[in-house]
Amino acid sequence: MSRYVLSRIGQAVLVLWAAYTVTFVILYLLPSDPVAIMLSANNVEVDSLTAEQRDAAVARLGLDRPVWEQYLGMLGAALRGDFGTSFAKQIPVSELLAQRLPATVTLSAVAVGFALVGGVATAFGATLLPRGRVASFVRRLPAAGVSVPNFWIGLLLIQVFAFTLGWFPAMGSEGWQSYVLPAVTMAIPTAAVLAQVLIRSFDDTLDEPYIATARAKGLSRFAVQVRHAFRNAALPTLTILGLLVGATVTGSIVVETVFSRHGVGRLAQESVLAQDIPVVQAIVVLAAAAFVVVNLIVDLLYPLLDPRIARTPRVSRA
Amino acid sequence: MSTHRYRTPALAALAAASVVMMAGCATATEGGTTVEPTGDPVAGGELTLEFWPDNAAFACVDPFQTYWIEHRQVIRNVADSLTDQNPETGEIVPWLATDWEISPDALTYTFHLRDDVTFTDGTAFTADSVVLALDSAVETLEAAPGAYGGVYISGYESSTAVDDTTVEIHFATPNAAFLQGTSTTNLAILAASSYEATPEERCLGDVVGSGAFVLDRYAPGEGIDLSKRDGYAWASELNAHQGEAYLDTVRINYVAEDSVRVGNLASGASDIAWPRNPFTPEDAALLESSGATLHSRSLPGPSQAWYPNVSDGRPLAELEVRQALQKAIDRETYAATIYGPDYPVVEGPFDTTTPFFVSQADALAYDPEGAGELLDAAGWVLEDGATYRTRDGETLTLEAPITAETPGDVLLQDQLKQIGIDLQLPVYQASERASLTANGEYDLLVTYYTRADPGVLAWILDERYAGSKAFAANSQTAETAVAVQALFDAGVQETDPEARAAHYAELQRLLVEEGVSFPIFERVQYAATAPGVNGFRYTSESFLSYYDIWKSAE
Fold first, then answer.
1. What is the chain B residue with the closest CA to A99?
2. Chain A hits for B282, Cβ within 8 Å
3. How high does pLDDT run on average in chain A?
């Protein structure tokens, strides 16, 4: 058991390091000119500088050192939580993230909550309802939810619930009302994916002989589904949920832009536009960390749901 | 105070209109009537203003450094300048300075100052404040060579406080545009405490001015909060009233989605929508039907224009090709198609609100036949059945790199195709612009500045001052550059208004004739105000003054 836990944690650390390194290579070593990018962030065109001014700028930014030294220095600083200073906003990246992160984390948590409730309810509805038009309609809902673009759902919700009905604000981050529309927007595709996977697992699980046995003992359909089928059908859904929680970091980019919220997603969008390298790098690492931590939690939950998993650690699970 | 705030009648009207539209039987609504201010101005209340997104590349509200027009608008209401400029006439009028003299050689400016002005931190505004502001500007310019305010103080040498209310400003080279410069936000005077802060700290909101509003908070990307300055008593004569501002607070939000900004105003959740791009005809109709009032004024300074790359080996190195291109752009169709039938047609290298503007409409007339003849004469001929002109087997291709494709770009592409020019629109990242210009890998590039003085174009086209030397050098032949620089110098050094006007008229003619500027459209600042918002006023730079604004009792 402990060996299983240790190997999972080791993998998580490896993934984080890889994410940091790959971002460093992409952002700093690709054939673009970091000096020009940094200077143009301050509205200085690099060609308006003399050679000495340019050399001074390069030295100030630490870009005159060998690549390895730069990499190790930045990695060391990052380990201490120091991601440098934003080119565009001139404040430490860690401070910037501390300002922006709470809004995104709360929104993501609410969205995942909505997605879980919506996804599971849809799956139960699709499998419990008597076969017919209603059941087949519910069964097809997830496909629609996955296919509809996120920003469009957001704009539609704003049009109806903010502009027409006036129930919720179209923007801002004040009060619980401001969470409803963005969280619903973020939750719809997530809920749809969850429902799709769960419906599929239910279909498979409900064909198992032990379900027939449970039914033969006189349990109701509902009781069988909740007590016997759900726990077994939930494993693939849990895997997907791990990925989807991580994906809320990327989902927040669109949602925060549409709803004018000030979170990490908006920050990512602004920073990519401005080529604000330290901020982009910190956000990539942060998103990777979100994926890694959630998947680590999921990995550690598996043995609790299905004890067979921890006992056969050598068997690869795709 | 929450942003979620509705005026009941407006909401009811909108809800009713939406229901009607949803039912699929939209009928003409009764909206669209302009509500005239009723009764005397009422003090108090909060104004909610929505901008498009904050500057992602350079978060800065320091008057001297920022170029972002929304930031400059906020600064206009927070920090006062020595002078103010009449938006109608371009005339410079007293503000913090009561009067001034300019030496005949335009090397020395003497300003006599008000003695009753204080900054919001309680310190007094004196001649020393002006000296400190200008010396600090020079320091800032050394740290950040591209700082926007640099354009206003070219040739600045030193300044001295003669007594508490008299300041002398000395220039090494004549600078006739300086007087107008003193009316801009970039030369607004801040309190000594602001200049003790670093340029970075000033950017992030360490800005203490003497304005009618106090900058309480600047959160980059999120918003700006202002509150009324108690005891304000030195508004310029261009305002409708004197004394303190009417509004208690002004709250500014950045809203990325145009449709959300428009919807918020129409549903009563905001008071003023201030977009960067003109409202689409659909948005304008929605706003008017909700009872909002639309405002528009051209932004002074260069119009939206292409500047060429005339380096050797490039198609635009030939004057005939440049002149043909000038005739090949159908500017009337552009304005009507892209921005709607009422949109003004661009008439020259400058927008119409720029002082010394002279219309070049005749030289910019659409003339496809004339363009074709010029190209034929230059050897670029259209073979039978060919779409594009060729010469010695080479196609006439122009590259106009863009950051994101707009309908306007595609329209221009089509217009040039009509006369056989192949316009390519490669997409580049904003950060690649420096290498793009330095390597000359383009034929046409767009840029613009906002300032109510024609001399600002030197910052684009005059290699000695330009933000990008390469861009300026590429834009004209060596002979043209000599003539253009002489006209810029004459415009800045000439203090006689009539002679100055003549120099700038010649400059505008030359830029069009030589194909240095290819105007595309007039840049217009639109705004919409909700019912009950009165006292809307554009400044000379087409910014919004919050000072006269008051809200009718609901």
1. B219
2. none
3. 80
